[in-house]
C-alpha cells in the first residue's frame, strides 16, 4: 500500500511499518480522553497496527495504566478488520513518584504490574511485554527470572527489552527468547547504531522498535535546522521530519519507528515518509552526517580522510584488524609507541597508575582535567598523534565498547598500537577508595547534598549511583575491538604500618540495645535497655586493648521520624548504660533509598573513616552486628565479623 510494508519478526507483516506511541497521549500536557481516542482511531484507519504503551503512562503514581486503558477503549470499538490484528505493546519495570520515573525490577513489583496491566487492557494474556529499564538495585538475573516465570505461566506471550545492550540481550536469552528490542534511535541519537546493537539485532532477526525517532518532544525542533535534511526535503517535496524518518527506515529492514503524535496531521506526516524514495546520492549525503554504522567504522573513514588531507606520504597507514601489532602483556610505561587506555570503575585507582606514565613522559588525556566529553578527547588524541606524539595515556572509565572504539580507531589510524589496562577493582574497593579520599580531603564522609556541592569542583567524588551505572553498562574489553594488549591490574589495598590500634566496631540497635516500647529504635533516650551480657563481654575486650566504636545506620533522621539531637542523645544514653569508654559514635543519617552516600552500611565509608582517623589495624579489627548488612560491611572493610547473638554468648 505504501511501498514500505515488511515482515517484522514476531510482529508479523506490517503494511505500515510504524507504531503509535501513547506516551504523549497519557502524560503531562495530554489531550482529553475523547481526543486521544479519536487520534488512535485515526491512526488505525491510516493502517497503523501497533500501539506502544506502558503501565506507568499516566500523570503520576495515582494515574497508572492510563495509556493501557486508552488502548482498550479504542480496540473495543474498532471493527474495521478485527481488533485482534492490532498489537498492543506494554512495558513494566518502572515506578512513578510524582513526575519522576524510577526503575523497579523487583520480582514482586513486576508480577503486580503485569496483573494490573491485564486488567487495564481487558486481556488474559499480554501479547508483547517489554522490560522498560534495568534496575541497578536489583540483580538482573532476578528480574529476568521473574519475567520468564510470567511467560511460563501464560500471562505473557512474548517478552522483550527496552533501553538495553547486546550483552543484556544475550544474558536475557538464557531465560527467555527476546522477541523485540526498543531503544532510542534517530538521526539525532544514533548510539544503538554506533555500538553495534542495530546490526546485532538485525543479524539475530529481532525487531528493533525505535522510540523518539525524531529526537523526542524536546529535540524535534532541531530537525528543520539540519543543513543536510533541509535540502533533501526540498528535493523530494517533503518535510525535513519526513526525510529523517525515511533515513531511519532505510537504516535496516527490521527497524520499526514508534512515532508520538497528538494531532492527526502528525500521523499523516509520518505515514507520508513511507513514500519517499531515497537514491544513492541521498543515502550518501545522509551517511556522511548521520551514519547508523558502528562508531569504529565511521570514525575510521574520517581518520583516513584526515591522513590523506594532512599527512601526505608520511607512511602512517591504517592497520587492518587482522594485522594488529601485539604488545608484550602486563608491561608498564614503555619507550615504544603506544596509546594506553587506562579504564575502570570510578575509584578504581587509575590516578595512581597514571603517575608512572607521566613520569615516563607520556602525554595524558583525562576528561576530568580537560572537561568536555569522552568523545571530545578523540580530536585531542588525533592532534597529538598528528603532531608526532606516539606515547599517550588516557585514564577514564570507558565502560563500553562504543566509548572505547573512537580511541582505538584514532590510534590505529596512525599505526600506533593500543594497550588496554583494566583496573580490576570491585565495587566495595572502589567505594573504599572514594571514602578514603573524602576523609583525607574533607575530614569526614560526605552526605548526598555535600557530594553534589563538592563534586562540582572535585571530579574525583562521584555519587554512589554513578558507580552502579558503570557496573550496569560495563562491557569487558575484548580482542576483537582491536587492542594490541589487554592487561588486567588487580587492585590491592595498601595497609599503613603506622595503624596499630585494635578496634571493635559495634552496631547498636538489635546488637547492644532494645527499646522498652517495642519500637525498632528509640525515639527518647530513656526508651531503651541494654541487651543481656553486653557490658560484661565488652569489658573483657576493652581490657584486652580494644577500642570501642558505634557504627549505625539512622535513616529515621532523613525520613523525619527522629531528630538529630534526639538520636545523638539516645546514643549517649547507650554509652552511659554500657559504662565503658566509647571512642567515637559514627552514624549515617541519610535516606535508605535511593542510597546517595558512601557511609550507609554495607558501604565501607564509616569504616574507612574510623580506620584512618583512629589508626586502626585491619588485622585487629572486629565488627559485631545483627544484620546481613553488618556482615557485608565487615567484609567490605576487611574486618572479622561476628553476629551479636554468637558474640555475646561467648
Structure description:
This protein has 650 residues and is α/β, with parallel strands linked by helices. It has three domains: 13-184, NADP-dependent oxidoreductase domain (TIM Barrel); 295-490, P-loop containing nucleotide triphosphate hydrolases (Rossmann fold, 3-Layer(aba) Sandwich), CATH 3.40.50.300; 501-648, HAD superfamily/HAD-like (Rossmann fold, 3-Layer(aba) Sandwich). 38% of the residues lie in helices and 18% in strands. The strands form six sheets. The chain has an eight-stranded parallel barrel, surrounded by five helices. The chain has a five-stranded parallel beta sheet with strand order 14-15-13-16-17, with helices on both faces. The model is unreliable at 298-323 (pLDDT under 50).
C-alpha Rg (nearest Å): 29 Å
Query: Considering DSSP H and I runs of 4 or more, what fraction of the residues is helical?
Result: 25-40%
Q: Span from first to last CA? A: 82 Å
CATH homologous group name of the largest domain: P-loop containing nucleotide triphosphate hydrolases
DSSP strand (E) fraction?
15-25%
What count of structural domains? 3
Structural class estimated from helices and strands: alpha/beta
Under the CATH scheme, which class of the largest domain?
Answer: Alpha Beta
Q: Give the uncertain stretches in residue-range form.
A: 298-323
Largest sheet: 8 strands, parallel, barrel
Named at the architecture level, the CATH assignment of the largest domain is: 3-Layer(aba) Sandwich
Shape verdict: globular
Mean pLDDT score: 88
Q: Spatial order of the strands in the main sheet?
A: 3-4-5-8-9-10-11-12
Could you name the CATH topology of the largest domain?
A: Rossmann fold
User: How many strands appear in the DSSP assignment?
Assistant: 24
* Tally of helical segments: 24
Amino acid at each position: 500500500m505504501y511501498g514500505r510494508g515488511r515482515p517484522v519478526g514476531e510482529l508479523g507483516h506490517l503494511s505500515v511499518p510504524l507504531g503509535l506511541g501513547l506516551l504523549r497521549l497519557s502524560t503531562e500536557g495530554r489531550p482529553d480522553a475523547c481526543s486521544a481516542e479519536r487520534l488512535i482511531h485515526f491512526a488505525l484507519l491510516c493502517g497503523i497496527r501497533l500501539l506502544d504503551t506502558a503501565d506507568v503512562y499516566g500523570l503520576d503514581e495515582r494515574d497508572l495504566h492510563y495509556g493501557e486503558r486508552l488502548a482498550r477503549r479504542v480496540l473495543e470499538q474498532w471493527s474495521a478488520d478485527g481488533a485482534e490484528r492490532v498489537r498492543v505493546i506494554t512495558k513494566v519495570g518502572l515506578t512513578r513518584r510524582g513526575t519522576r520515573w524510577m526503575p523497579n525490577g523487583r520480582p514482586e513489583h513486576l508480577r503486580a504490574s503485569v496483573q494490573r496491566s491485564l486488567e487495564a487492557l481487558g486481556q488474559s494474556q499480554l501479547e508483547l511485554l517489554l522490560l522498560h529499564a534495568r534496575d541497578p538495585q536489583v540483580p538482573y538475573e532476578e528480574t529476568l527470572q521473574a519475567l520468564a516465570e510470567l511467560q511460563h505461566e501464560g500471562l505473557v506471550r512474548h517478552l522483550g527489552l527496552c533501553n538495553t545492550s547486546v550483552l543484556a540481550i544475550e544474558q536475557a536469552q538464557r531465560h527467555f527468547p527476546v522477541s523485540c528490542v526498543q531503544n532510542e534511535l534517530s538521526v539525532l541519537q544514533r548510539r544503538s547504531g554506533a555500538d553495534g546493537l542495530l546490526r546485532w539485532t538485525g543479524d539475530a532477526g529481532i525487531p528493533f522498535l525505535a522510540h523518539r525517532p525524531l529526537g523526542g518532544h524536546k529535540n524535534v525542533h532541531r530537525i528543520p535546522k539540519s543543513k543536510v535534511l533541509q535540502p533533501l526535503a526540498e528535493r523530494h517535496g517533503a518535510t525535513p521530519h519526513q526525510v529523517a524518518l525515511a533515513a531511519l527506515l532505510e537504516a535496516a529492514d527490521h527497524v520499526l519507528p514508534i512515532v508520538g503524535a497528538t494531532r492527526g496531521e502528525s500521523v499523516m506526516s509520518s505515514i507520508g515518509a513511507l513514500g519517499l524514495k531515497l537514491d544513492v546520492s541521498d543515502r550518501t549525503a545522509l551517511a556522511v552526517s548521520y551514519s547508523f554504522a558502528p562508531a569504529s567504522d565511521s570514525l575510521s573513514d574520517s581518520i583516513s580522510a584526515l591522513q590523506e588531507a594532512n599527512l601526505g606520504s608520511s607512511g602512517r597507514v591504517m592497520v587492518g584488524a587482522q594485522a594488529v601489532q601485539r604488545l608484550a602483556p602486563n608491561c608498564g610505561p614503555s619507550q615504544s609507541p603506544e596509546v594506553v587506555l587506562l579504564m575502570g570503575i570510578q575509584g578504581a585507582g587509575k590516578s595512581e597508575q597514571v603517575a608512572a606514565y607521566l613520569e615516563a613522559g607520556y602525554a595524558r588525556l583525562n576528561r576530568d582535567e580537560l572537561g568536555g566529553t569522552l568523545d571530545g578527547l578523540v580530536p585531542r588524541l588525533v592532534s597529538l598523534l598528528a603532531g608526532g606524539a606516539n606515547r599517550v595515556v588516557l585514564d577514564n572509565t570507558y565502560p563500553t565498547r562504543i566509548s572505547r572504539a573512537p580511541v582505538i580507531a584514532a590510534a590505529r589510524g596512525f599505526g600506533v598500537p593500543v594497550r588496554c589496562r583494566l583496573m580490576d577493582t570491585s565495587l566495595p574497593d572502589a567505594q573504599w577508595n572514594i571514602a578514603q579520599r573524602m576523609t583525607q580531603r574533607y575530614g569526614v564522609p560526605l552526605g548526598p547534598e555535600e557530594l553534589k556541592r563538592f563534586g562540582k569542583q572535585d571530579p574525583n567524588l562521584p555519587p554512589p549511583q554513578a558507580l552502579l551505572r558503570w557496573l550496569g553498562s560495563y562491557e569487558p574489553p575484548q580482542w576483537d575491538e582491536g587492542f594490541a594488549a589487554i592487561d588486567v591490574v588487580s587492585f590491592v589495598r595498601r595497609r599503613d604500618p603506622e595503624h596499630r590500634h585494635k578496634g571493635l566496631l559495634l552496631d547498636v540497635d538489635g546488637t547492644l540495645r532494645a527499646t522498652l516500647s517495642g519500637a525498632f529504635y528509640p525515639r527518647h533516650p530513656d526508651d531503651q535497655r541494654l541487651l543481656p551480657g553486653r557490658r560484661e563481654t565488652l569489658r573483657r575486650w576493652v581490657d584486652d586493648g580494644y577500642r570501642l566504636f558505634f557504627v549505625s545506620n539512622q535513616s529515621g533522621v532523613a525520613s523525619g521520624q527522629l531528630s538529630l539531637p534526639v538520636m545523638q542523645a539516645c546514643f549517649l544514653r547507650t554509652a552511659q548504660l554500657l559504662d565503658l569508654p566509647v571512642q567515637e559514635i559514627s552514624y549515617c543519617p541519610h535516606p535508605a533509598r535511593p542510597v546517595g552516600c558512601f557511609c550507609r552500611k554495607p558501604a565501607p565509608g564509616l569504616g574507612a573513616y574510623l580506620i584512618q582517623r583512629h589508626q586502626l589495624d585491619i588485622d585487629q579489627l572486629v565488627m559485631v552486628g545483627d544484620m546481613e548488612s553488618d556482615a557485608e560491611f565487615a567484609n567490605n572493610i576487611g574486618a572479622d565479623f561476628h553476629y551479636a547473638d554468637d558474640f555475646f554468648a561467648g
